[in-house]
Design goal:
Blueprint: E1 19-25, E2 29-35, E3 45-53, E4 58-61, E5 66-69, E6 78-85, E7 88-89, E8 115-117, E9 123-125, E10 137-142, E11 145-153, E12 156-161
Antiparallel strand pairs: 1-2, 2-5, 3-4, 3-6, 6-7, 8-9, 10-11, 11-12
Length: 162
């Protein structure tokens, strides 16, 4: 006697590789963005793992972005991402851009070389070179009132008198 046809089965496999996005530095950490793979391999993706190079330090999560903690400030890192499902891990993504984690310095003191009063009662701040493009707020008291100075980039300074 002939057997009847069985139900069709679609085998599942590992997911495709995620597409790397951008790595952004932090203090002893980096945050990595990525796009999920085009194929989940026929089985739902259960998570993602971001791995640093050098060091093999990992961060995990269920979606983008993922933060990788425990990095050494002053060391340059790149990152790859893998996707996981019930069948295993994808191949790694291509490597991210390189980032070097660092601390945010304390607000500098005496970073202006002079303050001259203009005829319109605003102040001119002479710029001085600083080490990184960080946001600084310096509060001070001039005869005309309080001001704050925001340093966004090495060439972009602003002062406001209250």
């Amino acid at each position: 006697m002939a057997s009847s046809a069985s139900n069709s089965v679609t085998p599942s496999t590992i997911p495709g590789a995620p597409t790397i996005g951008t790595a952004t530095k932090g203090n002893a950490q980096a945050t990595v963005t990525f796009t999920p793979p085009a194929s989940n391999g026929g089985s739902a993706i259960t998570g993602y793992t971001v791995t640093s190079s050098p060091g093999g330090i990992t961060g995990t999560g269920s979606s983008s972005p993922i933060t990788v903690p425990g990095l050494n400030n002053g060391t340059a890192y790149t990152f790859t991402v893998i996707a996981s499902n019930s069948n295993g891990n994808s191949l790694p993504s291509s490597a991210s851009n390189s980032v070097t984690p660092s601390t945010v310095p304390d607000a500098p003191t005496n970073r202006y070389s002079d303050s001259r009063k203009r005829s319109n009662h605003s102040h001119i701040l002479q710029r001085q070179q600083v080490t990184e493009a960080q946001l600084y707020r310096i509060y001070g008291n001039f005869k005309s009132g309080w001001f704050y100075w925001n340093r966004f980039l090495k060439s972009n300074y602003s002062a406001r008198v209250y």
